Amino acid sequence: MTDFQAVADRVEIEALRGEFTDSAMMRDRPRLASLFTPDGVLRMPNIPVELTGREEIRAGGERLQAQWDFFVQTTHPGTILLDGDTATGRAYIQELARTLDGRQGLNYAVYHDRYRRTEEGWKFAERVYEVRYLDTTPLTGSAPSPDHSAEIATRAPAAPFAGPAAPFTGQATPFTAPAPAERLERTAAALRANGFTVEVLDDAAAARARVEDLLPAGARVFTGAGETLRLSGIEADINTGERYDAVRPRVLAIDRATGADEIRRLTANPDYVVNSVAAVTETGSLVLASGSGSQLPANAGGAAHAVWVVGAQKVVPDLSTALRRIEEHALPLENIRAQAAYGRPSAVNRVLILNAEPHPGRGTVLLLREAIGY
Q1: Mean pLDDT for back-to-back runs of 10 residues, the chain (374 residues)
Q2: For the whole model, what pTM was predicted?
Q3: What is 174-220 written as a DSSP string?
Q4: 322 and 281 Cβ atoms separated by less than 8 Å
Q5: Which DSSP letter does residue 26 get?
Q6: Which residue from 12, 18, 19, 257 lies 20 to 30 Å from 227 (Cα-Cα)?
Q7: Contacts of 69 by beta carbon, 8 Å cutoff, 6+ apart
């Protein structure tokens, strides 16, 4: 191999790595998949994900992208070792990301690569993603609004930098950022004044442990459907194993055409209902939304006891903002979940507003300092 050819190969491989990052940032999954050989493999053991072939890489990438609120990836040059028509190398990655269910953080990672020369140029034969550092401290920034992002993405390349731009002052993602400590305490005080028992906890792990403390063994427990309970592990804790008389697994085993009455009785008056909410107001109200309404009777008063696990991003100033949060934020995300789980879209057919708890000790709100769910 001539020195000139080696230089050309290195330049092309470096451009390939840059194209990968650009495709990911622009959410152009077909283009990203085309950067791999037809039998290429993308492995991300930390997630975990393993995708083989261009179609799997495209489809898998689209599934991952559907979870993003925002994602920023920066690639730093690494090593390239040429060996004829193949090569190996490493690229170093810095990423900022927040998902729609509230997971977020900063990480540094390495791509361990194998490259292959093809008739279309150099392609990835394999990329293996290894996280070297992860910081899940809540991010203080936010993504621009969708309209603003789309406008930027379709612009021609910008002119050379000519000085600092004016800051973006719009409220880009008003329903995803965790409420600061003073708002959480203000909300907790209002809920207590309205008769709810309130505990402010650090994170989902603390909520998971506290739910276990609150639910006595053998209790008949109904869990609402939602990402907060699933992501925290609370749903699995209750609905698997033998510690509780779990209602949801029993309901799922009943034929809905012939057992509708039995389902209604089981879900309406359990000993405990464990759920999340769509929003909690700084004036001390809990707001729940539902397509079928099946989980609302237990929350409204049918259950002897209720526990609501609420992420910090769900705090809003008032009821009008709570209803807007449901329509503009929660419903679009629930549509994605419902389509994947049931093959049909969701809808806001019923809304339950709990302005107060008239029975002292019945309702406990676990208000978290972190964002979780949507």
Answers
A1: 81 93 88 94 85 91 78 89 95 88 84 95 95 84 53 39 31 70 96 97 95 97 90 93 93 88 93 97 96 92 97 94 90 75 80 96 96 88
A2: 0.57
A3: TTTSPPPHHHHHHHHHHHHHTT-EEEEESSHHHHHHHHHHHSPTT-E
A4: yes
A5: T
A6: 257
A7: 98, 99, 100, 104, 143, 173, 176
